[in-house]
Every structure is written in structure tokens, then in C-alpha cells.
Amino acid sequence: xxxxxxxxxxxxxxxxxxxxxxxxxxxxxxxxxxxxxxxxxxxxxxxxxxxxxxxxxxxxxxxxxxxxxxxxxxxxxxxxxxxxxxxxxxxxxxxxxxxxxxxxxxxxxxxxxxxxxxxxxxxxxxxxxxxxxxxxxxxxxxxxxxxxxxxxxxxxxxxxxxxxxxxxxxxxxxxxxxxxxxxxxxxxxxxxxxxxxxxxxxxxxxxxxxxx
Length: 212
What we know:
The protein is mainly alpha-helical. The chain has eight helices and three strands, in the order H-E-E-H-H-H-H-H-H-H-E.
């Protein structure tokens, strides 16, 4: 009996081309660089004092309220962002101005979430696809994480993106057939994450709240 073979190896450049094509044909402008909103507030010294700029994801509907809370007497920094999601924000900031490197972070984050909350119906061939793609992005010598000296999420980190479209229910209706399908899912995850959440850089400014 012949041994069942897994999916063929894939190179990062193939995945990036698939990302660009899916972005163009789907009308989702993720091929351009992801940007950050600069939040400058006159925070009081103490727990809320951002000695160095802080990178974070804020729900888009809460940006104005959070900015006002940071600048006021209210303890505005009590919300918490998952470590995996914060790490993604930090990676995107490191790669700011480099759409290809940011695409690698966003695809990698989507794959990370699928790998660590693997839908039951994605075991077997789909799981093998996930692993091949992660090797190409995270560990290959010519891959983007190695080339740009980016650190992979720690094993204990979960929720690398604010939005994961493939919960068990929906994943039961969707079976990725190839790398392109998983790239398209990553594109959807990234588009929803960056439209419903805002990447921010929070820093102190004595002159008061600055225009977003």
C-alpha cells in the first residue's frame, strides 16, 4: 500500500501573489500597507502614563471614548487586549510601510488562530495545509519572518487577530481545498479585523488631545 503524501511545499512568494490577487479580485484593499492611528493624550503620571508609545488594537466604535478616558481623570486604561492580538499589532508596527511583510503577519496570524483552535472538520488534509503554510511564512530561510527578524507568537498566545471568521459552525461548511483558499480566508479575517478594530499608537503629549 502506498503511503499517503501530504500537500506539496509552498513558497512565500506564491502565497503573497495569491494574497494580492484575492485582494484585487475581491475588492478588498489589503494589498496596501496597514496604517496606525496616532493617539496623543495628556495622560497623568502613574499607571496610565505611556512613557513609550503603546501599540494596541481598539474597537473602532470606542476610539473616541477611549481617547477621552485616557486624557481625563477616569482610569481609561483598564481595558485589556489579548497578548496574541497585541503581538500582532507590534509585528504590524515593526513592518509599517512594508505591505508584503504586513501581509505575512496577517496571513500568519490567521493561520495561527486556525491552528490553535482547529475546527473539527479541518483535521487531516486542511491541517496539513496549515502546517505547510506556517513553515513557509515563519521558518523558511527565505520566508518573511526570517528575512525581517520577526518573532512568531508564543505557544500560549491565542487570538492573534481580533476577528476569526472560522468558528466551528462556519468551518463545518467550509473546507479549504488548497493554499489559495486559506489565503482568501486570511484576507477576510484581516479585512474584518482592520475595519472593525483600529490599530493605534498611544503616546503622551502635554499639548492635549490631538486630532485623530
